[in-house]
């Protein structure tokens, strides 16, 4: 037993192989220990003793290997050396490894350029609720994420890894793509935010589209400069991540120093300052470049804006300008001023309204000027105009990206010394810290800055200056430079992580279309994924507005966080044995609350963006389900399916199914060839056509022999059955039973297959075409008896090799010969067949047989009424079958049948000799001119031709269907046909010349047969044969051109004697003679179709 290589299955569904010299020494040291004599075993299973396993686990390292340097999708190049472990290993603690990365990723551009605007627009109360709601979502998500992350070893991969391994590849792939798109759009938002800081607040002279106070010019600048910055960042990321990692420290220092400067400045300006004077006309806020312009004196800049020369009236001023005075108001009033009470309530506004302290129409609606040509223009002058409609829900969507980034710690789990301890503590502490900063800033900004200045998004009333920067200490450049660098750093981080996330999804192999993005460059960089990421990011940059990008990427992050909560809730409720997280402070109710909040905020913010995100996730889910690779990750959805199946099975077991819900749940009894392939492959095609993709199908087979000796053969047979079911698109299960006796195994399958309400109610078994030579009638008839005893329906397709494939199209008639009422199964089966495209264009014809004492006219009328009530369209015909004398053919056919049975019984022949003896028996009859048996007797597996125009010898030609479905003519049958064809010539020769006596050995062999010819047939068998012959004549006459004939299967004989069973098979042969495709049906003893709705 080789124990030198130990495979430890990690939580992510894969396996990490541990191959160490110490393990090898330890293994061989214990291999011949005393415990190995008892527990080592000699069965080749390779069990490891506990000391070996513990030693291996102690040396297990969860450090994620470096990126592959190969150019193929698999990773390393052929012949390359194996990757070496990282120097130092995983040694990062909670503070450095989780807390600080989360802080850096959570604090972003929204904090610097939009938080003051959110406070002024929403007010302190609504602003507090907005921030609190967003922080609650991230906190609940962090709790769920901590539970998942501490439930075993978690490699890098963030939410994608956790969701895919918890909810399965479909959900994981969908959410992974959403997370990737969200991260990419976050990079676009950071780039646009950085350009906004640069163009609006640092260097407005760089504008290439004119005045930056005009929104369209400003957004065009963002698009052009943003594209340039994106190219620079993309080039940096392409060169390598070393610079990105080094710059991350600089960006983190900028974020922390900027926040510290803001807090210090708030208390330094406790009594306010005069750095930011605002000009207010009445209650309206006026744009200005600096002090000295806020006056109504003629000739001033403000006067020239509102007063225009007129050719008749001299100078005409705006009405609002004439009525109201101007005043200078300090923007930063300080915490001691009591301005907080002016900022308590919300100040939501509509787009294109004037920013004013009051909300009277006179103050917020601009004046208009009507021209002679009928056009009307709004007079906005240099007043501050609202550029976007604001509501509570819109502000939630704009602010939410500022609380994202909580996955940064879980992404670094491979670098942590104790990931299961560091991830929960570091992430939750980071969220608490950032939440405190955001919530405190809500109240501090509301208590320090004037309401009009808070609502001035771009600082147009203070000369295009950043409000937060002018609050900070010691200088505004601390915030301007810090926010610019931190925003660029966040963009670098996003555009570095997004391509690697896409490559990780592609390498999982769950989305085939992403396979090209598995490839890495020679330096191990995901170049192709980076190019796609830059293209998507450019689309976001072209939007040119942070306020448009923020709600869009909020949808993707909310979807991602919602699925993290769902994953935790599902795992908790299922109580799977592997769900043992070290983080204990979670509950499924908290997870569901987080999920509900995510969905609520999505639709509150933008219902059409929410539907877009859900539509993308749904399309990806269905694509993975249809085309993606099957992965077994032990996910919660599989456990959920098991729980749902268990619940459904218990519910189905409570009451038997109603007639309206009955559908054939088919069990196919398959006979296998010597190479373990199914003998009748078209049974699966017919089952597929009958089911039309619905219901349950179980394919079973029996292997003769002991299970212990045939385990491999049974597995191969299962694979063969499964392969054929997949080819025919039959939904269901397969099973193979090993039994010392075939008949006993079939009985066991019929009795035990299925579970609860999903037990099969219909058995399909192929017709034993060579029963005369192989004596298969015993197994076949016993299967029929077992099915009848189990009260299951039975389907026996005869001539299965002539049935159409599932891709064929058949047009013609499906004839139903309704002889015995069996619960309506004969009428239900053709209806189900017509649901499949193969039989869709066939017409149903129902025949029933009337005897002399029956009223055929009334029978036809009643049957039509019954079919109308059943909503089945079919032509109805009543066939009258008169009583007639028993023909010589019937008598001779019965006599031949009994002679054969008696001969086989007395001589106790083997299977190999039965065929020759039957041919000898036929030879004795072949020259009897009075016997009609010569023209109709068929030996072996034959189906006569249906062409009635043929006469003489051509009419009696037969087709022989071998097991492979090809039409062949065995030697014996060919000789028989040739004997028939030359029968006339031989008769003439016999008349001319006396027949030569046969050799003595042949006379001796024929002596017992001559004795058998003296047997008189049993009268009951003669009557049964007479019925079969007459009914066959009627069926062939009416249905010779039918594409399928469905007929009742006669009951098997009560006697178990070989003679009775052989007679029964002979009756079935006579009944179906001359028909290519016959389906013999026997009901299960219950009604399967009803006239009620």
TrEMBL record:
Question: Where found?
Answer: Cell membrane
Q: Where are the transmembrane segments?
A: 92-113, 125-149, 177-203, 224-241, 247-268, 384-403, 423-447, 552-573, 585-602
Superkingdom of this entry's organism? Answer: Eukaryota
UniProt keyword annotation of Ion transport present = yes
Q: Predominant location of this chain?
A: membrane
Q: Domain Amino acid permease/ SLC12A, which positions?
A: 98-291, 373-666
* Membrane topology type: Multi-pass membrane protein
Domain SLC12A transporter C-terminal: start-end pairs:
682-794, 810-892, 1024-1093
Q: Where is this region: Disordered?
A: 1-20, 933-1007
InterPro entries in UniProt: AA-permease/SLC12A_dom, KCL_cotranspt, SLC12_C, SLC12A_fam
Q: Where is the composition biased (Basic and acidic residues)?
A: 952-962
Catalyzed chemical reaction(s): K(+)(in) + chloride(in) = K(+)(out) + chloride(out)
Keywords of this entry:
Cell membrane, Chloride, Glycoprotein, Ion transport, Membrane, Phosphoprotein, Potassium, Potassium transport, Symport, Transmembrane, Transmembrane helix, Transport
Regions of compositional bias (Acidic residues) in chain numbering: 963-991
Q: Please report which protein family the annotation says this sequence is part of.
A: Belongs to the SLC12A transporter family. K/Cl co-transporter subfamily.
Provide the protein name: Solute carrier family 12 member 6
